[in-house]
């Protein structure tokens, strides 16, 4: 029974989401056509729009269906976790996971379509406001037009200054990072040089000791050879 209810709700959601997506597409197309048809913004684009009311109604209906489907999935999860169905637990878990995936897909699709619709409506509101500003600018007096034009130029200069400042800051940050990296490399080289400098005296001392031992061994060997030679001569003449 729960699976039948879930399938029925999923079918309803599928149809609602298709209609919801078509509404968003037709909304965008209607607004584009209206902008092409009316060059002067004499009528508001969105105030009292039937498509806006349809959007709100369908969004509420889809949210209610998603809530019902979520409740059905929760009930199926409770039934799966009950103690009376141990042998079918794996199959039931697979079925439950499938319905959860479908719910997740529908939820994601709904939020995505809704976000696109709201973005289009916000853009239309912004464009409508810009058109009104342009019309008011065109219908103003020459002094006001000149003043507005100066304000626009000053605004553009400020934007260019901000962009140049951001670029300068980016270059400074990159230079700082490079300097930090070079400082680390120089510290590493300096530490290695100090290590080598500390090792050289020890190496020199070791070499001197080796040379002294060689000389001592040479002297001892020479003394032994001389004594042996003297003894041999004494023995030969005796």
From TrEMBL:
Coiled coil: none annotated. One of its GO terms (biological process) is endoplasmic reticulum to Golgi vesicle-mediated transport. It is found in: Golgi apparatus membrane. One of its GO terms (molecular function) is SNAP receptor activity. Keywords: Golgi apparatus, Membrane, Protein transport, Transmembrane, Transmembrane helix, Transport. It is a single-pass type IV membrane protein. It comes from the Eukaryota. The keyword Ribonucleoprotein does not apply. Involved in transport from the ER to the Golgi apparatus as well as in intra-Golgi transport. It belongs to a super-family of proteins called t-SNAREs or soluble NSF (N-ethylmaleimide-sensitive factor) attachment protein receptor. May play a protective role against hydrogen peroxide induced cytotoxicity under glutathione depleted conditions in neuronal cells by regulating the intracellular ROS levels via inhibition of p38 MAPK (MAPK11, MAPK12, MAPK13 and MAPK14). Participates in docking and fusion stage of ER to cis-Golgi transport. This is Golgi SNAP receptor complex member 1. It comes from Nothocercus julius.
């Amino acid at each position: 029974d729960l699976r039948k209810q879930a399938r029925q709700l999923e079918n309803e959601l599928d149809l609602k989401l298709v209609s919801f997506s078509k509404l968003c597409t037709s909304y965008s197309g209607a607004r584009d056509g209206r902008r092409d048809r009316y060059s002067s913004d004499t009528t508001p684009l969105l105030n009292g729009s039937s498509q806006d009311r349809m959007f709100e109604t369908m969004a509420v209906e889809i949210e209610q269906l998603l809530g019902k489907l979520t409740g059905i999935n929760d009930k199926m999860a409770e039934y799966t976790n009950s103690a009376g169905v141990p042998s079918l637990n794996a199959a039931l878990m697979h079925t439950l996971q499938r319905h959860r995936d479908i719910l997740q897909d529908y939820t994601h699709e709904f939020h995505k379509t809704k976000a696109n619709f709201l973005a289009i409506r916000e853009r239309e509101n912004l464009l409508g406001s810009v058109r009104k500003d342009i019309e008011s600018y065109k219908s103003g007096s020459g002094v006001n037009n000149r003043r507005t034009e100066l304000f626009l130029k000053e605004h553009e200069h400020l934007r260019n200054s901000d962009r140049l400042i951001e670029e300068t800051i980016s270059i400074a940050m990159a230079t700082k990072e490079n300097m930090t990296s070079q400082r680390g490399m120089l510290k590493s080289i300096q530490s290695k040089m100090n290590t080598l400098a500390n090792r050289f005296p020890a190496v020199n001392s070791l070499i001197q000791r080796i040379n002294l031992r060689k000389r001592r061994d040479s002297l001892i060997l020479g003394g032994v050879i001389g004594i042996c030679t003297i003894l041999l001569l004494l023995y030969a003449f005796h």
